């Protein structure tokens, strides 16, 4: 019976660690999305755009 209790404890610990890892992945995904949105805004602000004469058509 002691083995069953030990196994339950180990499985609960594993479940907790998997939950924390999943939440960390979701949080990291949100962090990367925010960084992507900020970088997209920065690129648009810093892009050198002149008049229509500066554009080259192929």
From TrEMBL:
Top-level lineage group: Eukaryota
Keywords: Membrane, Transmembrane, Transmembrane helix
Membrane spanning residue stretches: 13-34
Keyword Transmembrane helix set for record: yes
Protein name: Tobamovirus multiplication protein 2A
């Amino acid at each position: 019976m002691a083995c069953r209790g030990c196994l339950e404890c180990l499985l609960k610990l594993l479940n907790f660690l998997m939950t924390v890892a999943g939440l960390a992945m979701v949080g990291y995904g949100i962090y990367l999305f925010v960084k992507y949105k900020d970088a997209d805004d920065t690129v648009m602000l810093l892009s050198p755009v002149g008049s229509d004469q500066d554009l080259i058509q192929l």
